[in-house]
What does this fold into?
Amino acid sequence: MYFLQNFENRKVLLSLSLIGIFLASGLSLLGSQAYSPPVFNAPERITAHPNPASPGSTVKVVGYNFPISQTITVKIDSTIVGATKAGPTGEFSFLYTLPISFTDGSHMIYATDSFGDFLFTTLTVAAGITLSPVRAIDGGSVTVSGAGFSHSSVVMVSFDGKKIYQTTTSSTGTFAFTYQVPMTTLAGVHTFLAKDIAHSTSQTFTTISKITLSRTTGTVGQTVKVKGTGFAANSPLTLTFNGAPIPGQPAISTNSTGGFSPSFSVPSQPAGTYTVKATDSRGDTSSSHFTVMP
It folds into this structure.
């Protein structure tokens, strides 16, 4: 969807471009050699990513097949937010961070070239939450930030359907808090959901498996305790030392929350550092290093 307001300059540019291509290639306009000119009528278009987006997030506007090396002015609704230039292929990209106060709903993004021709696309702005980090071990911390919610409104946040936090948003509809992922959380994908009187939005969060050793150095035959969390629940577990099963190690299984805490005897190995690795039946894995002393 686009509107062209002036074709005359484009016609001149296209004619000159065609002549230049023939001259550069050494082909005669009257020659008998077959020639297929490039396609000049590829449609111009612009896109915005992500879409929808929440206030405070950065949106990337990308345009295609615009006049080469021409200045492109970008406008959101009635406000000019910046300008850039189209590259040698007619493509441009422009980054813009939405103000925290940006309102919900549909907004028009316009890209106008130096001929006055323009294109537009629609950007949907809605409430959203971000997580930092998006992956962690159970017991780790994650910061949950929200924007675009109702102003000075009660918002409730849940983790896998269980309410974990409630607060009142700021005068611009934002909130933030830090949450410690329970040690009993199984490895895999989990969901944070935030809701107020008018909005509901979610983000996924991934917990990963982890093992720790009661000691990281020792001699052959010494006992080492392994503590694991975030594995599959009630699952058989394989424990290896330097990539091989540990001799004489009894069978290991995780408990109902994906944890375990067996001990093993350091196998006979030359002095050096080795990898201790735990793997459950689902393929969740974690490793740590142990140094065998002389």
Q: What stands out?
A: The longest strand covers residues 200-208.
